[in-house]
Amino acid sequence: MTMRMMGRVRLNLNVGCLATARDPATLRAAAAELLATAVFVFAAEGATLSFALGSTTPPYPYQQHDNRGGLVAVALAHALALAAAVACTLDISGGHVNPAVTLGALLGGRICLVRSLVYWAAQLLGAVAGALVLRIATGGVRLPDYALAGGINGLHAVVLEAAMAFGLVYAYYATAMEQRAGAVAAPLAVGLLAGANVLACGALDGAVMNPARAFGPPIVGSRQWTNHWVYWVGPMVGAGLSGFVYEHLHLVLARTQAQEQTTNRGTTRRA
C-alpha cells in the first residue's frame, strides 16, 4: 500500500489562464481578500501597538518576560481577528488572508497560479491599507517592528515561522478547505491555532506566520527591514510543505485505504 501511495504522489500545479485574472469571480474574491487582510492587520497590529507604546526599541513590552499579560492579549487579538476575517471570506475566496496559505493551496492543487497571483497582490495591498489606517488613526504613531529575541538568529526564526505556518495551513486544509467543519467552527479552529502560536513563539520572533502581516507596517512608515526575509521564507516554506503533505500524502493515503476497503468488501461478498 505504501509503494502505491508514494507512486501517486506528484506536484499538482495548475497554472490557469490569463483570463482568470479578469474573471468577475476572481476579482470579487480578491476584493474580499484585500478587505479581510486589512481588517486582520489593523486589529493585530493595533493590539501589538497598544503594548508597544512607550517603547522605542525592541523588544517591546509584550515580548519581555515581565509582561506575559500583554502577550496573552496580543495572542487573543490575533485569534479573534483572524477567525473573523476567515469567516467573512470563507465562502467568497476561501478565507486565505495570508499569502502563505494561498501558496499552500496552490501546491495542493486547490487554486491556480494566476488566481494565486491576484490573491497575493490583494493581500499585500490589504496589509498596507490596514497599517496605513492604523497609523492615520493614531496620529502618525510609528508602528512596531518585529525583533528576534536574544539567542534567536535568522535561521532559528525561519524554523519557528515554518513550523507555525505548517500547522496553520494544515488546520486550514482539515477544516476550511475540506469543509468538514461549519462556518463558525472552521474559522475558530484556525484562529485559535494562530493565537496559540503567538503564545508559544511571540516572545521569540513575533510569531508572524503571514508575509503580508510583516509587509504592511514597514511600507507605511517604520522602514525597518532587518530580518524581514525571515517572515517570508519561513511561512512560505512551512505553508507550501503543509499543503503538499496534506493533499498528496494524507488524502492519497485516505483514498487508498478507502479503495482497499471497498475491494475487500467486494471480495468477501463473492466468497
From TrEMBL:
Keyword Lyase: no
Location of this chain's protein in the cell: Membrane
Membrane-spanning ranges: 39-58, 70-97, 117-134, 146-173, 185-208, 229-246
Main location: membrane
Topological relation to the membrane, as annotated: Multi-pass membrane protein
Keywords recorded for this protein, A-Z: Membrane, Repeat, Transmembrane, Transmembrane helix, Transport
Family, per entry: Belongs to the MIP/aquaporin (TC 1.A.8) family.
Annotated protein name in UniProt: Uncharacterized protein
